[in-house]
Specification:
166 residues, alpha+beta, Outer Surface Protein A, domain 3
Length: 166
């Protein structure tokens, strides 16, 4: 990885960790929702402006089992995907954020974004399965329905209520 810049997660993106070490990454502005594998969550947590690509790879090798040689390219591809979607960018100054990791070892798998819900996004790979505009469902479509099931408030996602456009 030739990049020595420090990627940083967009603070407007919501990460909701689940009981099985997976997580949901949700953009409340677009309604895009993606599933993150445990390795992807691990990398996401390192997007704090204090770690460059080489630091992330080193931490991944320290905390994951069976990290293949192609992990370097996988990490770069994952970060580029996040940046393309506006979920991350590059920090020019290092922040004071402290990363807390648990002691559990992960088994390596290629980090990816798993499309979960609806979007009007022009980004390749974004879901097109949004409800019609005149539907009673939230204007963020099926992603909102999924996230409401996870405990997110419809008012948070859509305004005053699940059917309101807010």
């Amino acid at each position: 990885m030739a990049n020595d810049k420090n990627p940083i997660a967009n603070p407007g993106i919501v990460l909701r960790e689940e009981f099985d070490d997976w997580a949901v990454l949700f953009d409340p502005d677009s309604g895009d929702a993606f599933g993150l594998s445990p390795v992807s969550v691990f990398i996401w947590k390192l997007l704090d402006g204090a770690h460059n690509d080489k630091d992330i790879l080193k931490k991944l090798r320290e905390n994951c089992e069976s990290v293949p040689e192609e992990a370097e390219g996988d990490i770069r591809e994952f970060i580029n995907d996040l940046i393309e979607r506006g979920f991350a960018g590059y920090e020019t100054t290092v922040g004071e954020k402290k990363l807390v990791m648990d002691d559990k070892k992960l088994t390596y798998e290629k980090p990816t974004l798993v499309i979960l819900g609806a979007s009007d996004s022009e980004v390749p790979g974004a879901s097109d399965n949004a409800e019609p505009k005149d539907s009673a469902m939230c204007d963020v479509g099926q992603a909102a329905s999924y996230l409401c099931g996870l405990g997110f408030s419809p008012a948070l996602l859509c305004g005053e209520g699940a059917g309101d456009k807010g």
